[in-house]
């Protein structure tokens, strides 16, 4: 649950971190919907210095200690990689956790809220929507580079902050349960959508089967590869840092690429009801492929051969999740109108159809790259 925190409460939280200077302002920041995020501005000997303060949403992330341990290990490894390559401005190229006064990676207040602080990345911004192929190229390059840097993260295995997050077998099981229960009596409204799901069940098991057969390896992945999780340099327009690491955990590289295809190539909003406007843009898909393959040097042949399929898989998976929530009574995704989740599901399934129509052309392009 998102909280309403007084200025006094926030200043008290800030006092538990190793920050120097006098707090000037603490204001809400960003467009995220999960955690509470604030920009903290301090006066340090006459110069304004900013930090990012966040409260972790423990209703979504039920194992916050594991989550913060993941982030601590990931950010430390990224900074080690930047040091090894003598990268310029390393504090702008990876998130940096600020320690608490006691030396921990997070502070737990009296109400049990988990708080963390990052360095604020100056002279950079995020975008909510991709507007050019150049942005798509840079975003894909950022996430591929992120995977590349974490390919040799030492053991132990990172914890799963949201188990089975992109696992289609698990998502289909939840849909079947919601359909069987039909708590809101909505099953009769979605026969066409259930037919679409059933027609695609076997095909969508492909990556799970390939992983089980040892053909596709587990990797460390971001798992939320929207463009607004990449920061772009104000001056050059190039990607500079991947942010929002809460879902960084073991997964398949193809889940990250597939989610980029789903979110970046959409010609219409995720809840557009005029399905004639819903399609996956080829020019942005091609830009994603070029950007991703320029950095993803770890890809196996099997992974490269599944790049096109991964877009359909993740789009289908999100459609299944929207349909499941509609049948369950809209208990997970926020809705703003009657039938909102059903509209979203239909939209995603239309995006799958668009990708299917372009499948042969997309496969040819990937082979050419």
Structure summarized in a few sentences:
This protein has 369 residues and is of the alpha+beta class.
Structural class by sheet pairing and helices: alpha+beta
Domain unit count: 2
Which strand order do you get reading across the main beta sheet?
Answer: 1-2-3-5-4
Helix percentage: 40-55%
The top-level CATH class of the largest domain is Alpha Beta
CATH T-level topology of the largest domain: Aminoglycoside 3'-phosphotransferase, Chain: A, domain 2
Rg over alpha carbons: 21 Å
Largest sheet: 5 strands, antiparallel
Helix and strand sequence = HEEEHHEEEHHHHEEEEHHHHHH
**What sort of overall outline do the alpha carbons produce when their principal axes are compared?**
globular
Contiguous low-pLDDT stretches (5 residues minimum) are: none
Which architecture of the largest domain does the CATH hierarchy give at level 2?
Alpha-Beta Complex
CATH homologous superfamily designation of the largest domain? Aminoglycoside phosphotransferase (APH), C-terminal lobe
**Average pLDDT taken over every residue:** 96
């Amino acid at each position: 649950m998102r909280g309403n925190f007084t200025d006094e409460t926030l200043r008290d939280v800030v006092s538990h971190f190793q920050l120097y200077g006098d707090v000037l302002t603490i204001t809400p920041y960003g467009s995220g919907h999960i955690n509470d995020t604030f920009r903290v501005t301090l006066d340090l000997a006459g110069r304004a210095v900013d930090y990012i303060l966040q409260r972790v949403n423990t209703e979504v992330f039920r194992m916050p200690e594991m989550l913060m341990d993941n982030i601590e290990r990931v950010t430390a490894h990224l900074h080690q990689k930047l040091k090894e390559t003598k990268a310029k401005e390393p504090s702008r190229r990876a998130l940096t956790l600020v320690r608490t006064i006691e030396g921990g990676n997070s502070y737990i207040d009296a109400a049990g809220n988990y708080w963390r602080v990052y360095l604020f990345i100056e002279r950079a911004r995020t975008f909510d929507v991709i507007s050019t192929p150049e942005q798509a190229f840079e975003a894909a390059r950022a996430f591929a580079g992120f995977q590349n840097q974490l390919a040799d993260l030492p053991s132990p295995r990172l914890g799963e902050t949201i188990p089975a997050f992109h696992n289609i077998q698990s998502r289909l099981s939840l849909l079947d349960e919601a359909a069987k229960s039909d708590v809101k009596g909505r099953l009769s409204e979605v026969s066409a959508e259930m037919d679409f799901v059933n027609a695609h069940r076997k095909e969508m098991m492909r990556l799970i089967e390939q992983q089980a057969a040892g053909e596709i390896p587990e990797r460390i992945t971001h798992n939320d590869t929207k463009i607004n999780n990449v920061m772009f340099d104000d001056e050059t327009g190039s990607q500079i840092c991947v942010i929002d690491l809460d879902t960084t955990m073991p997964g398949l590289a193809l889940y990250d690429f597939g989610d980029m295809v789903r979110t970046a190539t959409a010609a219409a909003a995720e809840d557009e009801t005029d399905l004639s406007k819903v399609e996956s843009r080829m020019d942005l898909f091609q830009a994603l492929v070029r950007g991703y393959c320029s950095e993803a040097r770890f890809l196996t042949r099997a992974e490269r051969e599944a790049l096109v399929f991964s877009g359909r898989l993740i789009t289908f998976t999100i459609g299944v999740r929207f349909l499941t929530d509609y049948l369950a009574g809209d208990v997970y995704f926020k809705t703003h109108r009657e039938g909102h989740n059903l509209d979203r599901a239909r939209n995603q399934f239309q995006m799958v159809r668009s990708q299917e129509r372009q499948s042969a052309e997309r496969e040819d392009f990937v082979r050419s790259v």
